[in-house]
Amino acid sequence: MDQKGSDLKEASQGWHFDILVCDGFVLTEMAAVTDTLRIANRVLARPLFDWTVRSASGGQITCRSGLSVETQCFAAKPEADFAFVLGNSDPAHPGLSLGRVVQSYTSRGAQVYLLAEAAARHIRSQSGGAGAHTTHWENSELLREQLGLDLGAHALARQDGPVVTCAGMGATTDVVLALVGQLTSAAAQVTVANILLHD
């Protein structure tokens, strides 16, 4: 099947997202993913996007703002098309070390987005460190100070094969909007951005 035929098949079935969190996750990023997808479903007048929030242990996971989300455990064989690993108010949180979990998604053909601190943890774990990666500018400065890594200009997102490292925070909306445009249409992307008042 050619790429266009594959895209049409996927579009008719929709896409599933897993959102991976640990205690202290960034609420701004959670809202950016879920609200952008929710509004896209409304604009497209059909539920093309759905999601599951997952964590290592399942159950309630709390962000630093005091709000909790109900999660399911990480899937042994993920079936999601996309996974978003949210950043964390504690950049040293052990729950951000998800190398094997990320690999379980990429080995099954999913695109994985690592936000802010999750991206920084991934960059630290790479042998060369820098390369085609980015993270939030605060994390980038820490990587420069602690490891001597220079990530260059502060980009919102950089793709390295099936893994996309991202600045996170408010830029998460930009990343999800770009994905909505890629999977549906530029018109849908612009409409969702306008509803969000996000230029």
List the helices and strands and how they pair.
Elements: H1 3-13, E1 15-20, H2 27-44, E2 49-55, E3 59-62, E4 68-73, E5 82-85, H3 99-106, E6 111-115, H4 117-125, H5 137-147, E7 157-160, E8 163-166, H6 171-183, H7 186-195
Parallel strand pairs: 1-2, 1-5, 2-4, 5-6, 6-8
Antiparallel strand pairs: 3-4, 7-8
Helix pairs in contact: 2-6, 2-7, 6-7
Describe this structure in words.
With 199 residues, this protein is of the alpha/beta class. Helices cover 40% and strands 20% of the residues. It has seven helices and eight strands; from the N terminus they run αβαββββαβααββαα. The chain has an eight-stranded mixed sheet, sandwiched between helices. Helix 2 links the parallel strand 1 and strand 2. It is globular. Residues 1-9 have low confidence and may be disordered.
Number of helices: 7
Shape: globular
The overall pLDDT average reads 84
Q: What distance lies between the first and last C-alpha atoms, to the nearest angstrom?
A: 36 Å
Please write the string of helix (H) and strand (E) elements: HEHEEEEHEHHEEHH
How big is the Rg?
A: 16 Å
Classify the helix fraction into a percent range. 40-55%
Q: Quick one: biggest sheet?
A: 8 strands, mixed
Beta-strand content estimate: 15-25%
| Sheet with the most strands: spatial strand order | 3-4-2-1-5-6-8-7
Low-confidence stretches: 1-9
Number-wise, the strands total 8
Structural class: alpha/beta
